[in-house]
Amino acid sequence: VSTQSTWGDVATEALLDAAHGVFLPDLSLAVIDPLDSESMEFWGQKNPDIAALATQPGAHLCYSGACRPAVSTAKDLLAALSSCADATGPPPHGKATPSVAT
Are 56 and 4 in contact (CB under 8 A)? Predict the structure, then answer.
């Protein structure tokens, strides 16, 4: 999952809460802050398409070798992550119910 926007932004924080709200043992999270010139330079070189989208809060989810369309709300990210979690099975101590503050 990669998210774009400024740390502390309400929409960004909601996306981060959603990303942390689902148990996925192999989840990697990259946050792209458009105000961080080093981050923007790195992503501009590694993945210009993602860097170009870093002007507003959003998230990109790639799972099992396939990337899904970008989402801009925590609700949509949570739904996408939940479908991935359903495919991998429950966490070791039973399935937690994903939730996100809205």
Answer: yes
**CA-to-CA distance for 72 and 80, rounded, in angstroms?**
12
Q: Is 50 exceeded by the pLDDT of residue 39?
A: yes
CB atoms within 10 A of CB 82: 16
Distance between CA 4 and CA 11 in Å, rounded? 10
Q: Where are the beta strands (DSSP E) in 42-97?
A: 58-60, 62-63, 66-67
User: Is the overall model pTM greater than 0.70, yes or no?
Assistant: no
- Contact between 11 and 5 (Cβ < 8 Å): yes
Cα(21)–Cα(102) distance, integer angstroms = 13
| Residue 12, phi then psi, degrees to nearest 5 | -65, -45
Statement: residue 99 has pLDDT above 70 = no
Rounded-to-integer distance, Cα 19 and Cα 60, Å: 11
